[in-house]
Amino acid sequence: MINRIATYYKNLPVSISKIALSVLAICLFFILKEYTNHIINRYNYEFSWVLTSLKIGVNYIFWGLFTPIAYWLSKLVQQRKTITLKKVFQFILGCIALVLLHQLASTRVYALLNYADSGYLNQFFAENNLVLLTLGTFSGLIELLLIIGIFIGFEYQQKYLEKQKELITAQLNTLRMQLHPHFLFNTLHSIASMIDIDTKDAQKMLTKIGSLLRVMLENDAEQIIPLQEEVAFIKNYLDLEEIRFQDRVTITYQIDEEVLNAQIPNMILQPLIENAVNHGIAKTIAAGNIRIKAIKTIDSKLKIPCLEFQISNTLGNRSSTRKKIGFGVGLKNVQQRLERVYPNQYIFKTQIKNDTQFIATIIIPFNQ
């Protein structure tokens, strides 16, 4: 029986601790209200803090104990598709029964409190008791309807948040799926350009792309992954590009160990790396470089512990590269995904430094 009651409380949309705090806050409010009323009306008897607190406390403590039943009644109201006259009758009868139960329990405790204070115990069917029970039933019904209304509000908020989460997940999946054909097209184009030049290197590249595809398929259902998995994917991708460009590219990694377990959106860095290759190294005749940096920091704007990525690369043809900044599929995709995962809690910027380096910076909350 105790376990079943505990289960009812666990299923509530509000935690037991929050219910207890709410009961305490309401009790304090009405105790102060009674005290203020006593002072304003200048009653000729002393205000009893103990008796007043106990009476008000009993009323709302009982409501706190009956919250699972009130929650069950709120569920009956919300089932619009399956609502029947039977359920309407159950709701009305349940409300009346619960209010009467509450009033019977609280009036008996009131009687005991009065007995402890004055030594006089009212009979249960005394006229004064029946009047108090009748008046209390009406006020109790209003209190019960307010509790049911709060539960309904919580339920609608939960449903709204779940739908928003589903919508964002669907949008993120769509954005991530845009990356797959874009990534494959660019990679296959690189392999095609190598076939006539060096067949062995083209074969190596095909082996690499097989490994990349396997990783993409394994992580396809994951929205958030550890940074170390993203770095491993990037290293495999850049190994593939090193075969293509050979001595023309130098890759430098500066990744702090403390950030390797940080959680980031899946394939959020890959478009930036791909951008660095296609619009940086591929456009450069001389040797170029790609530098990947990841550190933990506290951003002055966000003012929370953050994960900062900085991807810089040698700039190729400046005019053609500048046209691509902010307008490519990859960079647009990164911007949109960051907005959905970290609304108003991220920084994404690109810049050209000294006409020779293109730098992309991402700053997001640090989560492990």
Corresponding CATH architecture of the largest domain: 2-Layer Sandwich
- How far apart are the termini? 40 Å
State the secondary-structure class: alpha+beta
- Rg, please? 33 Å
H/E element order? HHHHHHHEHEEHEEHHEE
How would you describe the shape?
elongated
Q: What's the pLDDT, averaged over the residues?
A: 78
Beta content comes to 5-15%
User: Share of helix among residues?
Assistant: 55-70%
Q: How many domains, in number, for the residues?
A: 2
What's the CATH H-level superfamily name of the largest domain? Answer: Histidine kinase-like ATPase, C-terminal domain
Low-confidence stretches: 319-327
Distinct helical segment count? 11
| Biggest sheet: strand arrangement | 2-4-5-7-6
Q: What oligomeric state do these chains adopt? A: single chain
Description:
The chain is an alpha+beta fold. The chain contains eleven helices and seven strands. It has helices spanning 2-10, 16-41, 49-65, 67-78, 85-118, 127-195, 199-218, 227-245, 270-281, 318-324, 329-341, and strands at 224-226, 249-255, 263-265, 288-298, 305-314, 347-353, 357-365. A five-stranded mixed beta sheet has the order 2-4-5-7-6, with helices on one face. It has a two-stranded antiparallel ribbon with strand order 1-3. A hairpin with a 6-residue loop joins strand 4 and strand 5. It starts with a helix and ends with a strand.
